[in-house]
Amino acid sequence: SQQGEEDPQALSIQEGENATMNCSYKTSINNLQWYRQNSGRGLVHLILIRSNEREKHSGRLRVTLDTSKKSSSLLITASRAADTASYFCATYPSYGGSQGNLIFGKGTKLSVKP
Amino acid sequence: DGGITQSPKYLFRKEGQNVTLSCEQNLNHDAMYWYRQDPGQGLRLIYYSQIVNDFQKGDIAEGYSVSREKKESFPLTVTSAQKNPTAFYLCASRKGQGSGEQYFGPGTRLTVT
Question: What was the pLDDT predicted at B96?
Answer without folding.
Answer: 74
